[in-house]
Amino acid sequence: SKEKSGTGYHFFESEMNNRSLESIKLENALYKALDRNELDIYYQPQIDSRTNSIIGVEALLRWIHPTEGMISPADFIPIAEDTGLIVPIGEWVLENACKQLKKWHEEGNHALSVSVNLSSRQFEENDLVEVVQRILIDVNLAPEFLHLELTENQIIKNKDLTVEMMEQLKEIGVKIAIDDFGTGYSSLGYLKNFPIDALKIDKSFIQDIREDDDSNSAITNTIITLAQNLKLNVIAEGVETKEQLDFLLSKDCYLMQGYYFSVPLKAEALKEKYLI
Ligand code: C2E
Ligand code: CA
Ligand code: CA
Ligand code: CA
């Protein structure tokens, strides 16, 4: 407290000021980032490893700051969420990812889907369903090609509201996946209350799949079995090695995403490598 000896307090105070100055600077820059065209969407392929063919892409936001360079979403999404900026930014991602997908459909890649990450802040906006519907109509995209990803913890934050929103989204025809599955604090029993289509196994479990360690393989195995029993699709994320791929295939989990196949790419690069 202020009564305590001078030096300690002053040191603490200047540390605090530095930190908030940094985040205020970032926050101000983020406000302008949309208008200044500094945001971009990268796309990571989702692969059916039985046929080694692309089935979809995940849209991943990138901020190319004019002086700081590429800033990771792990660093700016939390600021965007705290300030509410995630709402207009998230809408921008939805609209542009749908436009990009429509273009790829028109070029002949008719079966491709796009997965878009949603923040719980967006779920708290009561016009989310109208926004999604308007974008689908504007872009003229069939709703089943848009897959929305929500993390387990976002879902349990406000169960009733989330179920309600999900049901409305299902009604307009979009698909819903639970992201980072297995890392949350919920029980498995809650799953049946949500109208979901797919589980994404968190990359922390996939990356721990090793021949000499059964415990993480056991978790992955359990999630796959759960998804199969509930008739949900299951996607493994963060697949980096042939060993992980082989393990997953042996458990009939064939939808995968990860550096083993590709890092997230700019739209043009993704088209060049994977599309017609
Ligand atoms: P996420 O949704 O779990 O996305 C997967 C992250 O894992 C991405 O990081 C991706 O680049 C990375 N990744 C993919 N394959 C591998 C792999 O084989 N190994 C490893 N180590 N990592 C892999 P990224 O792009 O940095 O995004 C981080 C997080 O930021 C995302 O995690 C998501 O939660 C959030 N995010 C990204 N874009 C958006 C967005 O448009 N809206 C919202 N609300 N969140 C976003
Ligand atoms: Ca995701
Ligand atoms: Ca994830
Ligand atoms: Ca994550």
TrEMBL record:
Source domain of life: Bacteria
Domain EAL: from-to ranges: 23-276
Name of this protein: EAL domain-containing protein
Organism, scientific name: Psychrobacillus faecigallinarum
Span of the entire protein shown here: 637 to 912 of 912
